[in-house]
Specification:
With 514 residues, the chain is mainly beta. The chain has 3 helices and 32 strands. It has a 4-stranded antiparallel beta sheet with strand order 3-2-1-32, with no helix packed on it. Strand 24 and strand 25 form a beta hairpin. The protein is globular, with a radius of gyration of 22 Å.
Length: 514
């Protein structure tokens, strides 16, 4: 039996606070300092500082890098692809109970399909330990930590995507009869003497096909009566599943309680389709698919509402978590915006779009508190009116909302590639450029933010795919301090290919948000 089967560390609130202070001291070291390597709180000789986990796309392995500050950052080790049953790694997430979860899916060398969630213990030993791969559903893609209970992980199962198949979008493992994709709910296990690895609680069938993303509604200071629910959109079906996430509701807890059909006649007409069919709210059969194509979905602490972008309808709608009423928020049809995120306080929707001639990245903001329309703003370093155009990439807020990091895409038509832009976002809807960071010229990048204390950004880690390296950036001056080499084969070349983990981060809410 592996040593981490008997984990003796219990991360209590007090321990987290002490550990958080220790980590802040660690990452605030001046250039040239490094971790002392002292035993971590709780008496363990395991991890005593932050780690960067890097998904190596080519080798299908996972490398951990010790994040020590401006220098001294180094590869700790690599979990080889055999532990992941020789299939591709997907999204990563960590729980409040200090476990790492990685979606894995594909066909291995024995031509066997693998659709699982890998679990990794990052704490107990000096090197992270792969524990067990748990069967989830067909093709798990995105993975989330439950914002109402940080020990719970939700993995979205997009379903069968094989060519020439009669079951597109179906979870063939769990929902072959019901059809449609699903969501798998996992529990991280409580730490303590004799602790066991995480387990699967259940898989819930959603009766809807297509790529899935999720948002979690919950009571807030301003909206104490907001119900605890999970909203999961399915792109092909054009609907949102609603799952009860309140343990007080014994009869419906973690069950599908509603399906929001997003079909509207005007949206169908916009896409050259016939008017909508009338579908039941919660039938045991699939609804008629529509062309709305919901993709991004967010919950706002400010308004207590859920927001969903319908990419083909070119709209963003607001959903009341209690009544499930859907209200159009903004028409995007005359804009370039195709994606959006939400500020950590839930007040602003940050819209991102692009143009092709000249190539450029565009931004806009919706103030949800004021109910204002889109405020468009230009960023001369990216907007393409000068020979400075960038192609769209990923972006993340620091948890305190004071920093926004925008990674460019590496489209061949862009005049600027291999860039990370650091902005002061504390005065939204205004963005102030702090630094344009020139990255290693390479095939692609992914990144994550180390945030601690009150949620302020400390360091940024950026993968450099064909360079097989990882750049460490100090968030104070936004300068690259060190580039760690020999990270792995094509590290972090896909979105979400890099994740920074530190003990206590989940409990403190200090994870950057997309």
């Amino acid at each position: 039996m592996k040593t981490n089967k008997n984990r003796t560390r219990v991360i209590t609130g007090a321990t987290t606070a002490i550990l958080g202070m220790a980590l802040i001291g660690l990452v605030s070291c001046s250039s040239g300092d490094s971790s002392s390597g002292t035993v971590a709180p709780g008496g363990s000789a395991g991890l005593s500082g932050p780690l960067v986990f890097v998904n190596n796309t080519a080798s299908k392995s996972l490398t951990s890098v010790a994040l020590k500050g401006d220098s001294g950052n180094a590869v700790l080790g690599t979990i080889e692809n055999a532990k992941f049953e020789e299939v591709s790694l997907g999204d990563m997430q960590f729980s409040e109970g200090e476990w790492i979860f990685v979606n894995i899916t594909g066909i291995n060398s024995l031509l066997q399909p693998v659709h699982k969630v890998a679990t990794i213990d990052p704490l107990t030993n000096a090197l992270p330990v792969h524990e067990v791969n748990l069967t989830s559903g067909t093709r798990p893609v995105h993975i989330y930590r439950d914002s109402t209970d940080g020990e719970i992980i939700w993995s979205m199962n997009d379903g069968d995507n094989a060519t020439n198949t009669t079951t597109p979008g179906d979870d063939l493992i769990n929902c072959a009869v019901q059809t449609g994709g699903s969501v798998t709910i996992l529990h991280n296990s409580h730490l303590g003497p004799g602790a066991t690895p995480p387990t699967v609680i259940k898989t819930e069938c959603l009766l809807a096909d297509g790529h899935k993303v999720a948002a979690f509604s919950q009571p807030t200071t301003a909206h104490a009566n907001t119900p605890k629910r999970v909203f999961i959109s399915s792109t092909t079906a054009g609907e949102i599943a609603v799952i009860d996430n309140d343990p007080a509701n014994v009869g419906t807890y973690r069950k599908l309680i509603a399906r929001i059909d997003l079909c509207i006649d005007a949206g169908e007409a916009f896409n050259g389709q016939a008017p909508c069919d009338v579908n039941a709210n919660l039938a045991n059969t699939p609804n008629t698919p529509n062309k709305s194509n919901p993709h991004g979905i967010r919950f706002s602490k400010e308004t207590g509402k859920v927001y969903s972008i319908q990419e083909n309808y070119r709209t963003i709608v607001e959903i009341d978590p209690a009544t499930l009423g859907v209200t159009p928020l903004v028409d995007l049809s005359a804009t370039n915006y195709t994606a959006y995120g939400i500020s950590p306080d839930g007040r602003f929707l940050l819209l991102r779009g692009s143009t092709a001639a000249p190539v450029a990245t565009k931004f806009g903001v919706i103030d949800l508190a004021a109910g204002t329309p889109i405020t468009d703003f230009t960023t001369p370093e990216q907007d393409g009116t000068l020979p400075t155009g960038t192609s769209r990439g990923s972006f993340k807020f620091s948890p305190d909302g004071k920093r926004l990091y925008v990674l460019t895409g590496n489209d061949a038509t862009a005049t600027k590639r291999d860039r990370l832009f650091a902005y002061d976002s504390s005065a939204l809807p205004t963005l102030t450029l702090l630094r344009e960071i020139v990255l290693v010229a390479t095939g692609g990048h992914s990144f994550d933010v180390l945030a601690q204390g009150a949620g302020e950004a400390k360091y940024i880690a950026v993968s450099n795919s064909t360079d097989n390296s990882l750049s460490i950036i100090n968030a104070t001056d936004n300068l690259i301090k060190q580039t760690v080499t020999n990270v792995g084969a094509t590290p972090g070349s896909t979105l979400g290919g890099v994740m920074i983990y530190a003990p206590g981060t989940a409990a403190a809410g200090n994870q950057a948000s997309s």
